[in-house]
Amino acid sequence: MSRSPSSAAGWTVRLALVLVAAVAVLAVAGPALAPHDPLGQDTARALSGPTPAHLLGTDYLGRDVLSRLLAGAPASLLSALAAALIGLLVGALPGALSAFAPRAGEWLALRVVDALLALPFILFAIVFAALLGNGLVQATTAIGLLIAPGFFRVSRAATLRVRDAQYVEAAMLLGGSSWWVLRRHVWRQVAPTLVVTGISALGSALLAVASLTFLGIGVQPPAPTWGGMLASDLGYLAQRPAGPLAPALAIVLTVAALNLLADAVRDRSGAPRSRARGRRAVRKETVHA
């Protein structure tokens, strides 16, 4: 007897919620849950497989992999959250306001966003770190700035859909300012789309954080991060082929859970799907640019 689509969707949502809840716990209490000192070295047990004392084995310095995975969760997850919030704050409000801006201001805002979208991510992050310092704050800020154009586009497209509604036009004709109309009538319609985009952006930000720490940008060794663990384990594949599996699975499962949750929120809120939203945004921005 086959399950109905709604039943399958319900199980998917529950699984996503469980995974996201587990990720939230790790982000807050990961180091406290570590069974060993994540920086403690035991070279006699280096590159060992799973044992009762070390459930995920040890790395090339004999450090417990599970402890490092748990201790590295806050840096990886909270950095991704901070980057997504920076992108939301920098991109969403200007994107909504651009829909009400004069033609010259609208054109300038779109050109700035196009320029940011054209920047190579890794190169921008490296230059940003070189100019302002190779730290976690700098890496997080760089990721947030590169995520912001996506929020700008989504916010602008959602606002354009609402801007031509009769109640919005009536509010404008009655003398309401663009900011008042945006705050009073538009945000409540745009918010569901921004929530979906924000959850998806968390996954993208986590991948970006892992990529930068993989390259040595952001949190510096010996402090554990998922990307840094992946980079160090790749150097010892011959001795321990399963070494990179734990951090890679942590990243993949977290991103998958966030994407599933974003899909569930989108379906519940009635926000448009990404591809359709993107095509409508391109058509409207082409007309109004």
Word description of this protein:
By secondary structure, this protein is mainly α. The chain contains eleven helices and no strands. It is elongated and about 75 Å long. The N and C termini lie far apart (53 Å). 38% of the residues are buried.
Backbone structural class: mainly alpha
Largest sheet: none
Helix content: over 70%
Strand content: under 5%
What is the CA-based Rg, rounded? 22 Å
Distance between the termini: 53 Å
* Count of runs of 4 or more consecutive helical residues: 11
The geometry reads as elongated
Number of strands: 0
Mean pLDDT: 82
Order of helices and strands: HHHHHHHHHHH
Low-confidence stretches: 274-289
What are the SSEs and their pairings?
Layout: H1 5-33, H2 65-71, H3 73-98, H4 103-118, H5 121-132, H6 136-163, H7 166-173, H8 178-214, H9 226-234, H10 245-269, H11 274-288
Helix pairs in contact: 1-2, 1-3, 1-10, 3-6, 3-8, 4-6, 5-6, 6-8, 6-11, 7-8, 8-9, 8-10, 9-10
